[in-house]
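Entry 12.
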Amino acid sequence: MASLAGLLRAAGHTVTGSDENVYPPMSHQLRELGIPYREGYAAGNLKPRPDIVVVGNAISRGNPELEAVLSEKLPYTAAAVVVKEEFIRGRHSLAVAGTHGKTSTASLLAWVLESAGLNPSFLIGGIVENFGSSFRLTDSPYFVIEADEYDTAYFDKGPKMWHYLPDTAIVNNIEFDHADIYRDEEAYRFAFERFINLVPGNGTVIAGWDSPIMHDLAPRSWAPVQGFSYDEGVGAAEPEAPRDPRPEIRGASSTLRRPPLGNQPRWTAADVEFGTRTTRFRVLHEGREWGTAETPLAGAFNVRNCLAVIAAASAVGAEREGVLRGLASFRSVKRRMEVRGEARGVTVIDDFAHHPTAVRETLAAARQRYRDRTLIAVFEPRSYTAQLREFEDSYIAAFREAETVILAGLFHPERYTAETAMDPHRLVDTLRRQGKQAAYYPDVDEIVHCLAERLQGGEVVLFMSNGGFGGIHGKLLEALTASA
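Predicted 3D structure (tokens):
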């Protein structure tokens, strides 16, 4: 919503807003843009009367500001609809979807296209450090959008990504998430199946072939499919194509078919080298040498993100040298393995990871980057999925790379029952039996006090949360500095 506010401002609109809890980095961006916002919701925030109200998907009936919108019959719409009609329609939409890695991949794609001279507009749910912004509006025909599968608004329960008119669609991976809005994995898969189905025949689907569900969904695409895979063995040879489940569509005088399955181009990585500052790998296209990529990003998941971006950029004709320059000069995204500071020999990192897979991959990347240092994982179970009991075992496996694990308190625990909620005490006990140091501290200040007292210097503290986490990163750095 903050990114959209900035994009609308860039298009010449007057924009104001309301939110319950505005925190960095978006609060800083709004202030820098001069976009006023109110903390808290009230009918008075709608004065002077706006021409249209954009309702975010976190807003539900009973919200006093929304109730005033409805009572006064003010025109209102959803954010995704505004993006579609104001910015995407008429442009080539490069939409980045998937359970994990949307923000990082969309940010990398925008920068790579910029480095290749294509000057894209973009709207991303994080601040891209190369641009210093989460949005940009240009006269380029290309628009990069982070295509979220979360619902659109209280009055439109379909996913936002269905609105984004994808021409080049990246689907990194699909793994059940957002249990608060999807009843089961089948419903979740259907959201992506329909997204893929929206890509026109002259578009391209960039499919994460390391995600098994993509093997089922890719054949349903009407557009050509280009797969990418970290594993050279998977990508170099085309897997046996499944039986085409798609019926012929017969018109009065012709028969239409989707593009044939099988023999899809494959993008793969070979000879991957994880260094302390950069990651380097050979890029193969259909088993043939395409180039050697180097990136400051860490982790196997970022190799996959790079391959997806290379495939998408190539699909729109970006020149190779510009693509490689963009990969090498990318500076990441705020809150994605972001080093917030160092104090008393301790490195403090902030990351948005919250799903078990994201936690596992983030910790694996941190281990690759900080090989000989003690890794402390501090995790806030904040998302609905993160707090469900059914994911406890997955989290236990996800914390494997950390020597110490600290769990923060559940977010709005009243939403769960004893049968459905994660039990932090049980999770901590299991981790201790595995030989890890583990603790549960429901209060942020208690976590800061514990860490500041026990850290010896040389540790890497990785905070993971999809919220502000009570400003814990700055609090720890201040405590460490004060005791130096």
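Annotation: Confidence is low (pLDDT under 50) at residues 232-263. The chain is about 30% helix and 25% strand.
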